[in-house]
Amino acid sequence: MTDPALDADSLRERALTTLTTARARTTLLTSCVEDPDLTAQHSPLMSPLVWDLAHIGNQEEQWLLRTVAGRDAMRPEIDGIYDAFEHPRSERPSLPLLPPAEARHYAAEVRGRVLDLLESTAFHGTRLTEAGFAFGMIAQHEQQHDETMLITHQLRKGPQALTAPDPDPAPLFTGPSEVLVPGGPFTMGTSTEPWALDNERPAHRREVPPFHIDTTPVTNAAFQAFIEDGGYDTERWWTPEGWAHIRQHSIHAPLFWHRDGRQWLRRRFGVTEVVPPDEPVLHVCWYEADAYARWAGRRLPTEAEWEKAARHDPAGDRTMRYPWGDAEPRPEHANLGQRHLRPAPAGSYPEGESPLGVRQLIGDVWEWTASDFLPYPGFQAFPYKEYSEVFFGPEHKVLRGGSFAVDAVACRGTFRNWDYPIRRQIFSGFRTARSAGDV
Q: Which of 120, 291, 294, 318 is deepest in the core (most CB within 10 A)?
């Protein structure tokens, strides 16, 4: 039997590492620009960066210090200001937000008390404290807001504020364009991943007919072929809602792209550059992904198909945590954690491929699926309905796999993201599929 004290020490170390990693990233994202950029709203789709900073601290205080530790509120008067459900993003600049210095001080004071709490917490007794779930939930929450803040940096006008090395060059991928995923049941979701969130639960068996799925995400070059073939001007490739949306908003290319003569350029974190042909396409909405798939004679994979391609090992009917197995992600597996500020070339990370040979299922770009965001059989909201339950329904489409902007703590083979089908500012791409037997 494993020593419980060692288990507690291991959990405490994991919680400390993930919280510290998240805070270092938050600090980078809020210290690389001057205060006017922190308090400005760079897009009505996004909050001012300073709102995200104080919201991170407020959620940490509410869940770890008040709920887990039972302590009195430090700043009860600001709870409503930083309630994401009380104020839509477009209204947040008009709120009496904490100024940058005060927001930093508040978040730091909360974190100091949380680290003291972590030293004395027993990782059992309640569902929130079991296996350090509450600490993991808060680390994931902060990393999710870090990704949101990175999106804000991409939307921000002005000179480059963030830098990171590019992914390693990769030889042109010459493997098969698609792989066959055999039909049959597999275990979807999880009941054992200690920090999995409520919408990933419970594990359940799904029957999935055989299908083919792209070996890599769809590239910029492939998407340009859709554009040059009149994809944005041909109604038959689009759903009625998608066609109405792109006509209303005069959409003719992925977000941040513009044509300069015969070549396409894009703006990426303050830098204008030629669109790299071998990278996965980025900043496309669900309607664009779906239209491309129709144009290519294919379709978007369902959420169940995506997860089976990512987690199912036909040898022994085994379901894995990640495409490469059960080990935590390493740099050779996937492009995660804002280590780079762009996707890696399609076909990168051979050590991260699935047993069937599918690559880049984790990291690089969030991948749109055909599925609505719905609960699994036996779903139970925990620890609050507003995390998942209020978003269930056909209004939101599921994205899988994570992007270069996602930290490993908030990205698993079971992790589910969701958004409106019109969203393009997110780091979204896709891959296509077809049913076995379809030509």
A: 291
| 356-401 residue pLDDT tens | 999 999 999 999 999 999 999 999 999 999 999 999 999 999 999 9
Q: Is the backbone peptide bond immediately before 383 cis, with ω within 30 degrees of 0?
A: yes
Residue 109: which domain range?
A: 4-155
Torsion of CA 230, 231, 234, 235, to 10 degrees: -170
Q: Which of 155, 179, 199 is the last residue in one of the domains?
A: 155
329 and 349 Cβ atoms separated by less than 8 Å? no
317/430 same-domain check? yes
Which residues, listed in sequence order, are joined to residue 214 by a DSSP beta bridge?
178
Q: CA of 41: how far to CAs of 49, 92, 136, 340, in Å? A: 8, 9, 29, 25
Return all residues near 347 (Cβ < 8 A) that are at least 6 apart.
170, 171, 172, 173, 175, 215, 216, 278, 359, 360
Residues 176 and 143 in one domain: no
Does residue 26 belong to any structural domain of this protein? Answer: yes
How far is Cα 308 from Cα 293, in angstroms, rounded to an integer?
20
Number of domains in the chain: 2
Residues in the chain: 439
145 shares a domain with 88? yes
Crossing angle for the helix pair 4-31 and 100-120, to the nearest 10 degrees = 170
Upstream peptide bond of 100 is cis (omega within 30 degrees of 0): no
This prediction's pTM? 0.96
Instruction: Report residue 39 as tokens.
Output: 């308090």
Claim to verify: residue 128 and residue 225 sit in the same structural domain: no
CA distance 368 to 403: 12
Residues 132, 229, single domain; the answer is no
Same domain assignment for residues 124 and 147: yes
User: Is residue 375 one of the residues assigned to a domain?
Assistant: yes
pLDDT, tens digit, for every residue of 225-265?
A: 999 999 999 999 999 999 999 999 999 999 999 999 999 99
pLDDT per position as a tens digit, 403-437: 999 999 999 999 999 999 999 999 999 999 999 98
